[in-house]
Structure formats: C-alpha cells, structure tokens
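Objective 1b of the project was to move from sequence-level analysis to a structural picture of ligand recognition. The entry below was assembled by the postdoctoral researcher (A.K.) and checked by the PI before modelling. It contains the amino acid sequence of the target and the SMILES of the bound compound, magnesium ion.
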Amino acid sequence: MSYYIVFAGKGGTGKSTLAALTVRYLREKFLKPILAVDADPNYCLPDLLGIKEVETLAEIRDNALLRKPDGMSLDEWLEIEINRILRESEGFDLLVMGRPEGKGCYCAVNNVLKRIISEISGNYMYIVVDNEAGMEHISRGILDKIDILFIVGTPAKSSIQAALRIKELIKQVGINPKKNIFIVNQATHKMDEINRDFEKIFYVNFDVNLKKLSERGEDIFSLQDNSAIIKSFYKILEEEIE
Ligand SMILES: Nc1ncnc2c1ncn2[C@@H]1O[C@H](COP(=O)(O)OP(=O)(O)OP(=O)(O)O)[C@@H](O)[C@H]1O
Ligand SMILES: [Mg+2]
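Corresponding predicted holo structure:
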C-alpha cells in the first residue's frame, strides 16, 4: 500500500520547497520507490528537483483522442503515454499534472486517467504530492487517500485561516488524513493561537541559504546538509513518516 505525503497551504508559504525536501529525504534514506506528483498547474517541483523538461498529464489528456492511433483502445494509449511522461530520475519518478480539465473535456478520458493513475500509484512505496493553493486537483477527486497532510503556512492570521479552509475542504471530499500537521514555515516566533485547531504543529525556521538557492534558481539537492531548514524539517519527517 502506497504511503501518501501531501502538501497544501496558502500561496507562497513553502509547499513546493518542503515537498522537494521530502523527496530528497526519502531518497537519502533509501525509502523507495518514490513518486513525486506536482498538482499545481503553475508547476515548479520539476525545477526544484533538477528536472528541466516536462510533459504534463494535461497535455496527454487534451490530445488523447486526436493522437490515439486507430485500432488502439483509449485505455491502452493513455497507459503508454503516462508511462512515457513519468520522468524517471535518479531515485524517484515525477508526474506533473498540469491544468485541471476544462469545460470541453471528455469524461471518458478523465475516468480512464483516474483509473490508470491509481493503478500506477500502486507501484510506489511513497507518493509525495505538491498542491496549488486552490486545491483544484484534490477537489476534482484525483486523490482518495492521505497518510500525512502537511498544511504549510507562515506566521500570519490569513495563513491559518487558509489552513483551516483546506482542512475543511479535504473533509468535504471525503478524505480523512491519518495525520493533519500544520507547519509554520519561515517562522520567527511561536504562535499560541493555532494550538487548538491542529493535532500537531511544527515550526520550520527561515533559512537564508535556501533563499539564496531559490534566487539563483538551483535545485534542492544543492542545499547543504547542515542548512537550517534541512535540520529542522528532516527531524519532523523522521518523527512522522511511518
Ligand atoms: N524556511 C524558508 N526559509 C527561507 N525561504 C523559504 C523558506 N521556505 C520557503 N522559502 C522560499 O519562499 C518562496 C516560496 O516557496 P515555495 O515556492 O516552496 O512556496 P509554495 O507554497 O509552493 O508557493 P506557490 O503557492 O506559489 O506554489 C521560495 O522562494 C522559497 O525558496
Ligand atoms: Mg508551489
């Protein structure tokens, strides 16, 4: 059974960074096979993981009926295409979702996609999902299980309100995460107010090395082992991942 580690939270709080760091952590601990899923239409996980060119699931979906060779079923074609775009990197695979389906999209394609994704997911021990702030893919039912939900926020009231909305949305789509964890990222001090709303709260400090790395557009593997964010976030992962 795959273990799902899912990141959500308000825009710009550090979801993608922490998702990429989780992939790095799992790889270093030889906890594999790993699938990284970028569920943000404005994807940046590939860059953070050092992958330059990607083709998205949305591109496959939107062109499926046009490109499918005659005589091949939609199932067969989508399965071939998804396996083609599943980027095999050193120690992990990457699936980039792209845009959620638009109005003119064919249900047939989506239903087949959902089935194939759930089949493919079964091949991985760990699945790390980076979401967009709006949670479109989650509300459209692309996920049906979450082991750890990391809701990432900054030390701001608006961030906590967004976190509570996300918690509620996930409940509404019928997912009951085994763990709901709130991460106050880029923290400068402890916040008292949030304690009653989440089972667990962790603080990850602001890391100047990460900021510089991000400015230079370097990947997460370039971050030094002794950097502040690695020390504090790895400790959380060690405690929480089963
Ligand atoms: N602990 C931290 N210390 C310093 N900088 C950080 C920290 N966490 C994240 N950042 C920086 O904050 C910026 C936003 O981070 P990131 O892209 O991971 O957020 P996000 O929640 O995925 O954003 P979006 O909603 O746009 O997808 C990046 O430049 C990142 O390097
Ligand atoms: Mg992001």
